[in-house]
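R.M. (postdoc): so does anyone remember the format we settled on? I'll just put the structure tokens first.
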């Protein structure tokens, strides 16, 4: 039966553009996501400490229009409204993050903030009462400022400091929270925060600090996983993993050099963090080779990429119960020999990134739905078909329309490609999370770029939330658990025409009559 349906499905889906009418497996779960700094506001009330994003936005000159997350969606005060929206969507889970500095104003566990603990207890309890499972991200980029003052993620002590924070969260909330994510998108917060300086803490060291910071973050992730695994899993029985982000990188041409370059580009983004955890262990070979070669050419005595000891490599390997994936867009990759004068994680890759000018786009997102299917297959092939949870996927716009047909189109085609990856390719994808519940503080783009299923009016102190067309689309998608075959179109039954006063007798076939009776 399964085999037959696979053949039928393959026959129906011959090209990338074909739509697959089918439903997701029964175990499939649907959710939406947010992050603390992007929605909570209440930046300085009830004992919360500052985070690096408070500092970064307040400094001015870093973010569009010098906006801040001081109020954002005011979810600190309006979380009950958020829970209602989630309930209306009918999603199985809500992925949100903890504000570390709200719980631990100094970042350290010896001085907890009871109001912060109360806030997350209330949110978690309200979710469970509404039948929505909490999925909690420990670190979605808002590091307590005091920890940054001590060196932030450059500081090796962060491995244990993060671990203590994680244990603190498991102790407080692990009786009710059964899904944990250590880090959201290490690639983004490290390259943006320590490479380009376009995110907090705003440092620019694209050739050196990005690599040393990633080294610390990977170790911190592993310690938190081990703590949960040894101390909490036996009684709390949940899962814990990491969320990595990646574009799909399509070769620019059939040239073997471009094909190799596209593979290299994924290794330098996804593989950087995935190979140590899910792959062969340690950094991808191609990263080690390229960065060593470039470093020596640049006059360094050793590679700018640090090395793990064998013990560290083993300690990190296998430390995720699932493969958390954030995915938004695709690019084309061409091989290139970059001049190696300037040390940079971008130059180290020896590639040129391009896009196809026919691709539909919005801000930095190019709409390439099959890219997600290709990426899921790449992950399956590269890491032994791990169970994947898609922790973010979504589409932006810069207007405030409620009729967001382009976002509906994006969700429809991207989720359909997840379905294809499961049904046609055998990828083990277990859940899908739409980014995001509502318009919120979109980092450097602040409020100029919107990703929400719900519109938020940031001019109104009440921050009212209004569903967009995409909210109704997701509600229906969740209710149907996919895309059931559309009902056959029944031809409209016309009234028999009356000619010359004589009613002509027209026999209407029974099935159409039945449908006609139902409608009237
Ligand atoms: C995710 O990051 C985050 O997890 C989430 O918090 C965020 O809101 C969501 O995606 C939507 O962005 O225009 O060329 O300067 C994605 C990180 C940061 C990647 C901004 C693209 C813009 C590139 N994104 N970056 S560009």
């Amino acid at each position: 039966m399964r085999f037959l349906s696979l053949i039928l499905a393959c026959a129906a889906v011959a090209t990338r553009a074909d739509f697959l009418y089918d439903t997701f497996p029964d175990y499939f779960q649907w959710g939406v996501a947010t992050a603390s700094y992007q929605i909570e506001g209440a930046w300085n009330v009830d004992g919360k400490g500052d985070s690096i994003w408070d500092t970064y936005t307040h400094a001015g000159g870093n973010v569009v229009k010098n906006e801040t997350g001081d109020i954002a969606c005011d979810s600190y005060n309006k979380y009950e409204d958020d829970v209602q929206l989630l309930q209306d969507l009918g999603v199985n889970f809500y992925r949100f993050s903890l504000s570390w500095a709200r719980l631990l104003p100094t970042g350290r566990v010896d001085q907890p903030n009871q109001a912060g603990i109360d806030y997350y207890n209330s949110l978690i309890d309200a979710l469970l009462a509404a039948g929505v499972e909490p999925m909690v991200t420990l670190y979605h980029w808002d590091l307590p400022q005091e920890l940054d003052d001590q060196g932030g993620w450059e500081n090796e002590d962060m491995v244990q400091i993060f671990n203590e924070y994680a244990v603190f969260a498991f102790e407080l909330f692990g009786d009710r929270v059964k899904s944990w994510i250590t880090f959201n998108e290490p690639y983004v917060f490290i390259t943006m925060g320590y490479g380009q300086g376009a995110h907090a803490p705003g440092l620019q060291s694209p050739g050196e600090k990005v690599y040393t910071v990633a080294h610390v973050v990977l170790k911190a992730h592993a310690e938190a996983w081990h703590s949960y695994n040894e101390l909490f899993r036996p009684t709390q029985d949940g899962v814990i993993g990491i969320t990595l982000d990646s574009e799909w990188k399509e070769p620019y041409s059939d040239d073997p050099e471009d094909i190799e370059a596209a593979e290299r580009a994924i290794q330098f983004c996804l593989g950087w963090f995935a190979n140590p955890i899910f792959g062969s262990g340690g950094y991808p070979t191609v990263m080690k080779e390229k960065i060593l070669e470039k470093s020596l050419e640049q006059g360094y005595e050793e590679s700018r990429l640090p090395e793990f000891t064998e013990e560290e490599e083993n300690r990190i390997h296998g430390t995720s119960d699932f493969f958390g994936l954030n995915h938004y867009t695709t690019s084309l990759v061409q091989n290139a020999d970059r001049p190696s004068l300037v040390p940079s994680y971008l130059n180290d890759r020896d590639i040129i990134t391009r896009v196809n000018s026919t691709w539909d786009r919005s801000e930095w997102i190019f709409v390439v739905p099959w890219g997600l299917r290709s990426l899921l297959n790449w992950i399956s092939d590269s890491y032994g078909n791990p169970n994947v949870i898609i922790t973010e996927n979504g589409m932006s716009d810069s207007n405030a329309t409620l009729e967001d047909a382009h976002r509906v189109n994006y969700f429809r085609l991207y989720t359909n490609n997840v379905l294809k990856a499961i049904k046609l390719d055998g990828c083990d994808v277990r859940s899908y999370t739409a980014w995001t519940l509502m318009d919120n503080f979109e980092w450097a783009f602040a409020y100029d770029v919107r990703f929400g299923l719900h519109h938020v009016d940031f001019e109104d102190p009440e921050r009212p939330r209004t569903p967009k067309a995409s909210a109704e689309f997701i509600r229906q998608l969740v209710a149907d658990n996919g895309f059931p075959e559309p009902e056959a179109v029944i031809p409209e039954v016309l009234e028999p025409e009356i000619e010359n006063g004589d009613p002509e007798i027209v026999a209407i076939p029974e099935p159409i009559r039945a449908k006609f009776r139902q409608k009237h």
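R.M.: ...and that's the designed sequence above, right after the tokens. Also worth knowing: The two ends are 38 Å apart (CA to CA). Residues 501-506, 511-520 have pLDDT under 50 and may be disordered.
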